[in-house]
Design goal:
224 residues, mainly alpha, Methane Monooxygenase Hydroxylase, Chain G, domain 1, 86% helix
Length: 224
C-alpha cells in the first residue's frame, strides 16, 4: 500500500474504533510509565506509602493497556486493510504495549527491594530515576508520533527522531549504571542483582519505544 493510500486510510478512519483505540492505548501506556516515575520520586523522598500507591496505579494502567490491545487486535482482524498492512499495525500495537510490559517488569523488581527492606544508596536510585525519566520522555514522544500518524508526516519525523535520540541516551545511561553497579563492591549483592533487572527492564521499554515508531515509519512509507 502506498503512503498516500495509508494517509487516506488513516484520515478516513481517524475517528474510527481502531484509531481511537490506538490513541487510548498509548495514553494508558504513557500513564504506566509516568506512575513508574512517580514511584521512583517517592522512593527518593523516602515516602513508601506514596511509592506503593503509584505502583498500584501502574498495575491498573498496565492492565488497562493490555485490555485495549486485545480489543484493537480483534478490530484489526476484521478490518479493511490487506494482511500485510494489518500485520504491520498489529506489530505496532504490540510494541507499544511492550513499553508498559517492560516498565511493569522494572517496577516489580523495585517492589521486591521495598518488600525485602533492603537499603539502596541514594546515588543508585538517582541513576534509576534518570533512566526512568528518559523512558517517560520516550513514551511521550511515541504518543505524539501516534497523533501525527498518517496526518502530519513532517511532525511525525520530528517525534521519530526524538525517540531515536532518547533511545541512544538510555543505552548510554544503561551501560553507565551497569558499570557503576559492577564496580560498587560495597553494595549488597542482592541489590546488584535486582538493580540489574530494573535497568534492563527500563532499557527494554526504551527499545520498544524505538521499535514502535520505526514500525509507524514503515507504515507511512511502505511501497512509496
Amino acid at each position: 500500500m502506498s503512503e498516500k493510500k495509508y494517509s487516506m486510510w488513516f484520515a478516513k478512519r481517524r475517528e474510527s474504533t481502531v484509531m481511537d483505540g490506538v490513541k487510548e492505548h498509548i495514553l494508558k501506556v504513557l500513564d504506566t510509565c509516568e506512575e513508574m516515575e512517580n514511584a521512583l520520586a517517592a522512593i527518593l523522598k523516602k515516602d513508601e506509602l506514596s511509592a506503593r500507591q503509584a505502583i498500584e496505579r501502574l498495575y491498573k494502567d498496565e492492565k488497562a493497556a493490555d485490555n485495549i490491545e486485545i480489543v484493537l487486535n480483534e478490530s484489526l482482524a476484521i478490518g479493511e486493510l490487506e494482511s500485510k498492512e494489518r500485520e504491520d499495525l498489529m506489530h505496532m500495537v504490540k510494541r507499544i504495549d511492550h513499553i508498559a510490559d517492560w516498565t511493569k517488569s522494572a517496577i516489580r523488581n523495585i517492589e521486591i527491594l521495598m518488600d525485602a527492606k533492603i537499603e539502596v544508596p541514594e546515588k543508585v536510585w538517582k541513576n534509576i530515576q534518570h533512566i526512568g525519566h528518559r523512558v517517560v520522555e520516550g513514551a511521550r514522544e511515541v504518543k505524539f508520533a501516534v497523533d501525527c500518524l498518517g496526518t502530519d508526516p513532517d511532525k511525525f519525523l520530528v517525534h521519530h527522531r526524538n525517540v531515536d535520540i532518547i533511545e541512544h541516551d538510555i543505552d548510554d545511561l544503561y551501560f553507565a549504571a551497569k558499570k557503576e553497579l559492577m564496580m560498587s563492591m560495597s553494595l549488597d549483592p542482592r541489590v546488584m542483582f535486582v538493580m540489574r533487572d530494573i535497568i534492563h527492564g527500563l532499557e527494554n521499554a526504551a527499545d520498544n519505544c524505538k521499535e514502535a515508531v520505526d514500525l509507524m515509519h514503515i507504515i507511512q512509507t511502505a511501497n512509496r
